[in-house]
Fold this protein.
Amino acid sequence: MTAPTHPSPARPEACTMAQLTDESTRTDLLNRLKRAEGQLRGIQRMIEGGEPCLDIASQMAAVRKALDSAYVRMTVCFMQQELRDKLGVSEAQAPDLAHMLDDMQTLLGKVR
């Protein structure tokens, strides 16, 4: 006896994430990531050199904070870009949107 077959539900098409188009934002994010990369290399040297765990942990916390900050910055810039495009924010409204999102970035930065 075979089980009845049910038609599979239609799958929604995958949402394609937009890319950051602002060159200065991309440069800022890359610089933040390069600094974090340098911090990680420093932590590796500390471990290889037998540094105390408390010192290593402090540096790890600093790297996490730097990555969190870069993530928030990327997210806010993405939101600004998409809101401007999707809502048709005019040039006159753009400073208000930027100010609101700067405040949001500050608030999100306090969560860490």
